[in-house]
Write a structure and sequence with these properties.
alpha+beta; 5 strands; Muramoyl-pentapeptide Carboxypeptidase, domain 2; five-stranded mixed sheet
């Protein structure tokens, strides 16, 4: 797992540990290194869970669209309904958001 330069992960909530664990496994199976591109850093929409340590962005730019959709489905299935897994351009946004 790699953390992009400038990404701030101290303060990431414990609920994000399964996200990183499952994602690392999936990325490795696809022959890629998992890269966290945002956590508690950067500018996000008002009320974003990034600011509270309940969201991360994961690099997907090296996957083609069908692979990104497959990764999204697999990660969402592993994490369950308390997590949202959203494709956003060249990254995947994953947040802990129990209903």
């Amino acid at each position: 797992m790699k953390i992009k330069e400038g990404v701030h992960i101290p303060g990431l909530q414990i609920q994000m540990k399964p996200v990183l664990s499952f994602a690392e496994k999936i990325w490795q199976e696809l022959g890629r290194e998992l890269v966290i591109t945002s956590a508690l850093d950067g500018t996000h929409s008002a009320g974003s869970l990034h600011y509270y340590g309940y969201a991360v962005d994961l690099r997907t730019r090296y996957f083609d669209k069908p692979t990104v959709k497959k990764v999204q489905a697999e990660l969402a299935s592993e994490l369950g309904s308390d997590y949202d897994v959203v494709i956003e351009g060249n990254h995947m946004h994953v947040e802990y958001d129990p209903k």
